[in-house]
Amino acid sequence: MTKRPTIHDVAARAGVSKSTAAVVFSSPDDVSQARRERVLAAAAELGYTPNAWARSLRSTSGGFVGIIVADFHNPLFTEIADAARQLLAAQGIFSFVASASIVDGPDGKILDREPIQHLLDLKPQSLFIVGGLPDLSPFANLPGHIRVVVALSSAHELPGAVTVRTDESAAMDLVCAHLADLGHSRLAYIGPVGRRVAEDRRDAFVRAASAHRMTTTIESTGTAMDEPSGSDAAERVLALAEAPSAIVCYNDNVAFGVQNALERHQDRSVAVTGYDNTYIARLERIALTSIEQNTAEIARRSCDLLSNEDAFAAAVGTDILIAPELATRSSTETVTV
Amino acid sequence: MTKRPTIHDVAARAGVSKSTAAVVFSSPDDVSQARRERVLAAAAELGYTPNAWARSLRSTSGGFVGIIVADFHNPLFTEIADAARQLLAAQGIFSFVASASIVDGPDGKILDREPIQHLLDLKPQSLFIVGGLPDLSPFANLPGHIRVVVALSSAHELPGAVTVRTDESAAMDLVCAHLADLGHSRLAYIGPVGRRVAEDRRDAFVRAASAHRMTTTIESTGTAMDEPSGSDAAERVLALAEAPSAIVCYNDNVAFGVQNALERHQDRSVAVTGYDNTYIARLERIALTSIEQNTAEIARRSCDLLSNEDAFAAAVGTDILIAPELATRSSTETVTV
DNA sequence: TTGTATGCGTTATCAA
DNA sequence: TTGATAACGCATACAA
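ok -> structure tokens follow
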């Protein structure tokens, strides 16, 4: 097997022309049954499978889905990408995953165009972008027939794209309702600013909290959204004259930092909530109440759009919002005020 | 930009033939300076970059490195893959990452050949396999010029490959020396069986512990290596007549389970160590002493082999062992016995 | 040094 | 229905 068999080898073995053999794999009905069976048999004996990339080169589309993961290290992203691959494979559509490479530029993050161009050169039938990219311009002038679906981020820069993301309002409503039930009335929110998702989430929090008649304080972590920045922000919040009884965080990482700060202050009275319901939040030592984004449903809806032309056409330009759930754990089982 | 410029367009604009233009990009010295500059200028104006896959199709090798990540969800793997990409890019070598898809077969895990075949069809110059795959046979009959480097796993099935992995003996020696320093003399080890790395690590533990004159108990987690299995195994160990004063774990996940079990028993006297020094181990609430695999060094050595033919030839068939480090945290700051 | 012709593995367009 | 031929974007042996 040091060399793969080609359509040429199959044709020779079956005693037909290259073109006839090729047709067997593209539109089997256009060839007589006798020849079709001979070709198929020859292909099976040789272990022939078409070379997808030679096909791509010749055709306008390779018939596969290109998946671009914004950040390999975000388990949410890889989970969705993985689920999408399986769903598409079940439909007989194969997919190819590429990681976006994001580098530091003079002003902010910059999206490296090279790996994306390489994926585009493979001529995907449609594109699935998982997670937020600093820049969507590489996808602005795609050949019109390529469908683009963006998950977990907004694609307002791409008029022809469809976005599938978590319903932030519903999420923050779950959080605030839960805290209201527990008797909280003064909340703080800790999270980053600047990025679209960040603004959405914070605004959703403010709306939800006020709907539940709770007062709010917003503490920014700048552009950071990790454990140390959460810890720092928590210190500032705890120093406030009217300290809150619960702290709602942009994501789990920030919440871990907040938990650390509370631990340093020996303060077990303040409730903390996260967002993403990561593996870590489930650990008994952490036990963080957190929003679970419905990744399975996000993947399912995305794949539907990716593979179904009509479904995509009907949804183009819209945001599809997926309802999240709240996983409640002991981080919100505190002394109520 | 709805259509990418081809070498044809560049040649037309520069007023030379296709081949001349092509040569400018493959062996620039073989063309006169005047024409070279005209071609380069035309390419720049058009924004031309070569289509790597068309090049691959024509040549025996596309000159890029194919990276296969065994499991997207293992942060260690993605970290190494990412580092390798950057190191290779700095050398002007581009790389393409594909995730292996591992499915459940009748007896055990099965490696899906399709995505791998697709990557192979792209004709990589060399292959970088990150992490353990259930089956290396798809790589057994590669065209001879393709170099294969395997990181974090063993490649004894592939005679022509080179393995780069952590020195398990050194790792377990660090752990046991640390525990010996703290006065421990009875150790338990909790981890899975069956896989090569698992056996290596356990055997290394036994050797290191006996070198430090400590007694050992081995508790298996079967094939599992996650938090619940660690928790269960810890319960069994704690029920032992002569309970150990320290528990050494196969990895961090298992160790988190052990920590949970200890927490349930209100037992702060038993030391726990992990392996991988994940992001989670660093969280203040977890503070797990753990072995840090030197991913940067693993990536560096691997890339050296990947890009340097001579270095690879010298190392073929061998295992390159990378020294790990021990990150000590409060999980081993217990009451000493 | 430069251009012409051919092929990589496939699909598409024609005649036959 | 089938098969010869061209083309996708590129590289290379060969001729000029």
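Chain B has three domains: 7-50, 64-166+295-322, 168-293+325-332.
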